[in-house]
Amino acid sequence: MTSHPPPTPEGVRLVSLSLCMLVACPSLIGHPEQEARAIEWLNWLVKDEAYLESKNGIAASFGELLLLMAIHFHGNQMNAISDLVSSTLGMKVTVRTNNLTRMKHIFTQEIFTEQVVTSHAVKVPVTENLNANISGFLPIHCIYQLLKSRAFIKHKVPIKDWIYRQICASKPPLHPVLPPLVEVFVSSMLVPQVKTGSFTQEHTMITSQPITEQEIREVFSKSLQVNGPSLSCQLLLLYYMLQYEDLRLNNISTVSPATKYSTEFLSDIPIKYLLQQAQRDQQNYAGLYSHLLRLLATHFPHLSLVDDWLEDDELSSKHSKGAVITQQRVVDGIEKMTTVPSDTARMLVDLLKLPATEMWPYAQTVVSSFRNTLDPCVPRYVQELFKQVWLKLNTVLPRCLWVMTINAVRQQKTRVPSVTLTQENIVLDPLQVLRCDGRVFRNASALSILLRVLQACLAASRNKLSRHLLDNLSKSDTGPGHPPQPTDTEREELKNALVTTQESIAVQILLEVCMETEEDRQIPGQLWGLREIRSVICSYLHQVFISDPALAKLVHFQGYPRELLPIAVEGIPSMHICTDFIPELLSQPSLDKQVFAIDLISHVSLQYALPKSMSCARLAINTLSTLLGVLPSNSRNELFGKVLPAFVRICEAFPPLVEDSLSLLSQLGRICVSENALAAVPAKINTEVTRNVINNQTLCGDIEKTFAEIIQKSVLKTKIY
What we know:
The protein is mostly helical and 721 residues long. The chain has helices at residues 9-24, 32-47, 49-56, 62-74, 78-89, 101-111, 114-121, 139-148, 151-154, 160-168, 178-190, 202-207, 213-220, 231-250, 263-267, 271-280, 282-299, 306-316, 327-335, 341-352, 356-359, 363-367, 380-393, 398-409, 423-428, 444-471, 488-513, 518-522, 526-547, 549-558, 565-571, 582-586, 591-607, 611-630, 633-653, 658-679, 687-715.
């Protein structure tokens, strides 16, 4: 057993079996002479390990087995040693813990001290082309166990370079130990450990430095090239960064300030593209995809929008061979967009046939022509093709594409020098997306792109503010002479207020875009285009209101032009949620808000004739009946003059409310007639009274018309369905 076999695969196999037999049968070294011989043989194994490995030509050798066994002995993991011996011998062997006491002493005290183990482990070469098909005990197993026990930190042995090289040397299918290796490496850097002797957290950041941005950039700078680094390498580095950010933010209050990757650096990494590749090849990356998806949804919600995922599946399947695409052809096609749009269309069609990564080199040229697509001379077909190209580019580096798009359609100010926006600028103020060329709001294809960018930028802004709160925790001890700092609760409330303000402003702007202008009436066919614009905006607002009903409540409490109510109620399917807060809106002291609430109730009732809507409508009639008896003449005329059309809609939706409505209208009419009769006395005549008389007469006429419409549309209505 303790012979020195030749450096052949068979010799290495014999050495591995002999080593496991010594552990499985400790009685073999029961005598001092046998023990001394075994120690001498083990020292020979350690000394000549590199020579034997270089000759046998296999990736997994007894050196890793020897090192892994020493690691388990140091960690007192006897069950792991038993499993290791059983798997090597190919049979189940029960190794008693009591029998391993002497062998443990030999390994840990005479041959492999913990310092020797850690120093030796980092010198072991990485496994080239590491993948799941390579079996046996590899250096990665040893490094993984040492990282779990934090031996590298304890003995101040740097391990970052070894892990980086091993990640870069990985190939698909993914080796099952690589993801846990990344996790335990990140954990050793950021998760604090209780003091044990002289070991404190300070040693952590000395020996476990994070992988630098430059090292990561070297890999991802070639990620979109044909002969770039393997997908396994890129996914592992992506997993490392996401896991690092996750643990850094979760433990930010318990660890010293750690290195933070910049926003601009992260925006240059094709996170979304890599995740899509992992999704399509889950057979090779099954152990990694779910973790990546969870971390992406948590820390980059703007890259995990539902619409993007649905369209990505459709766009990714459209690849075919087409004409040759060159930079010059793209430039020529863009220049002919208004003069010879057929050439532009052919160029865009051929561009769509390319894979997304091959399209990306032309992204800047294509997106810079966004403003040209708004020209009235550009056919709708070309605009739709441009939109399809943009959506396909959005699957590669979406954040870079958003910045290009916003800079391409920004509103030009002649007296102010143009400033190119960056990712940081847009995340801090996402409303800059809407400060664009006004023609975008009358072009459905361009508006669809803009709304996609707006949705993503608002999500990115929310995420940025949340991370800012975590990165800058409030300080309890401000010291004398310093103003008191807001608490974490107050800072969270301020953040939520800022986010809600940004999103409500965006909704208000989009609602105003739906209003018909004089220019729309003058341009032939523009009203048909406006209908499509309204449909696009209402679809977007529907998603916004469903995801955040509180935002819908805020927007309606802020109010918007009442002319938009029929458009919003008919076009936004989620407007039925307004019935939850209409009673509260109706109780506001402002007459304008009450008028808005009653108008809203009438339109919602007509669109959603539900029991809850009927309750709100009945409440509105009762409220108006109460206000009729308490409001002065001028306020009463102002209120009822605006809400009379709402009576018609309420009665049309709910005929049982006709009686109450007509009774209220009759009472209102009698009051107006009585006031006019009193005003006929000569002593009472003055300017204000005259104005009230005129208003009462006008209101009486409107009441009669409303009465007639209610009878016609509700009482005499013959069509039930």
